[in-house]
């Protein structure tokens, strides 16, 4: 019953947000019909209970009609309230998109490097390439340099997505406060729920990036994302914390501990054991500066390589010839 009540209140707050942002009333009714049906039912009851009766009976249960009235009155007294909600959402959406682009850029770069490494390994296994072939050491050094900023871009992208989602959800707390509902559950949603949602979104896109190169590793990312997406709407804090623990421990076991054990024992990995490279973030400012310079250099090289007539593009054409 508590979950149903909280769900009803969340739908009501979302409907108010949409009305405040300028959405027509007809479209809002189509999106949340149950809210307006209950509102109409409350309106037909009339004003049977006066203020004196309410004071005599003590605190009354939540009434959607009164909540909508309070929200409309507050909006009239504070004309900038709706624009403030729009600004929060616009800033949050912009930060989310920037973080998403950073994550994709980092992971796609890592996928391309791993595909080249897999191809060279296959060529060596088939005796078409010798381990000490000319230029291999230099190529591996360049690949290691390209992978250096990956951890900072991936983690930084995740954090920007988290901040963006927090900015998008934060106006819901103001709406709940205006209509007289407790804002504590909303603050928990902003602080913890936004992070869990950002983590599920990030793991889903990592599944998309790695699905063609590391299919078994990609399935692990998909399992983490889908399980989190199914558990988060329940609102059960204990289940969410248990899922977080299992996701981090299971991910560390599969992506870090298991491949290292096969490498230490010099045994061939099974087909289902696949890593996606190491993601290690240092606390050293020098490492941050070096990773930032490398990431910028990689971005400039990638952009120049697709621009006709650029210096990098001419070098690629010369190599092809």
Short description:
With about 325 residues, the protein is mainly alpha-helical.
Describe this structure in words.
It is a single chain. The protein is mainly alpha-helical. The protein has helices at about 1-20, 25-30, 35-45, 50-55, 65-75, 80-125, 135-145, 150-180, 185-210, 215-230, 235-265, 285-305, 310-320. Helix 6 runs parallel beside helix 9, helix 8 runs antiparallel to helix 9 (about 185-210) and helix 10 (about 215-230) runs antiparallel to helix 11. The protein starts with a helix and ends with a helix.
Layout of SSEs?
Blueprint: H1 2-20, H2 25-31, H3 33-44, H4 51-57, H5 64-77, H6 81-125, H7 136-147, H8 150-179, H9 184-210, H10 215-231, H11 237-264, H12 285-305, H13 311-320
Helix pairs in contact: 1-8, 2-3, 6-8, 6-9, 8-9, 9-10, 10-11
Computed CA radius of gyration, to the nearest angstrom: 27 Å
* Largest pleated sheet: none
| Proportion in β-strands | under 5%
What spatial form do the alpha-carbon principal axes imply?
A: elongated
Gap between N and C termini: 71 Å
Return residue spans where pLDDT drops below 50 for at least 5 consecutive residues. 43-59, 316-321
Compressed to H and E, one letter per element, the order equals HHHHHHHHHHHHH
Task: Count the beta strands.
Answer: 0
The total count of helices amounts to 13
Structural class by secondary-structure content: mainly alpha
Helix content: over 70%
Average pLDDT score: 74
């Amino acid at each position: 019953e508590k979950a149903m009540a909280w769900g009803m209140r969340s739908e009501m707050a979302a409907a108010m947000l949409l009305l405040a942002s300028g959405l027509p009333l007809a479209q809002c009714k189509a999106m949340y019909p149950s809210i307006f049906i209950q509102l109409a039912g409350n309106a037909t009851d009339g004003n049977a209970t006066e203020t004196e009766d309410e004071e005599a009976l003590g605190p009354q249960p939540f009434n959607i009609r009164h909540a909508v009235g309070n929200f409309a009155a507050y909006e009239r007294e504070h004309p900038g309230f709706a624009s403030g909600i729009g600004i929060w959402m616009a800033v949050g959406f912009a930060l989310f998109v920037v973080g998403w682009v950073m994550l994709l850029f980092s992971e796609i770069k890592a996928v391309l490097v791993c595909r080249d490494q897999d191809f060279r390994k296959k060529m060596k296994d088939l005796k078409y390439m010798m381990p000490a072939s000319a230029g291999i050491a230099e190529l591996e050094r360049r690949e290691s340099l390209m992978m250096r900023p990956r951890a900072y871009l991936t983690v930084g992208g995740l954090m920007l997505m988290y901040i963006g989602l927090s900015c998008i959800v934060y106006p819901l707390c103001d709406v709940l406060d205006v209509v007289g509902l407790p804002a504590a559950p909303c603050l928990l949603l902003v602080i913890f729920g936004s992070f869990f949602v950002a983590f599920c979104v990030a793991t889903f896109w990592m599944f998309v990036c790695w699905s063609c190169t590391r299919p078994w590793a990609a399935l692990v990312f998909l399992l983490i994302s889908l399980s989190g997406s199914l558990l988060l709407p329940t609102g059960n804090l204990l289940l969410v914390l248990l899922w977080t623990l299992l996701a981090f421990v299971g991910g560390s076991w599969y992506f870090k501990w298991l491949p290292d054990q096969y490498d230490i024992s010099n045994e061939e990995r099974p087909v289902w054991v696949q890593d996606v490279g190491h993601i290690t973030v240092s606390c050293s400012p020098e490492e941050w500066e070096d990773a930032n310079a490398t990431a910028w250099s990689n971005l400039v090289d990638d952009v120049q390589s697709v621009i006709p007539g650029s210096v990098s593009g001419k070098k690629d054409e010369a190599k092809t010839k």
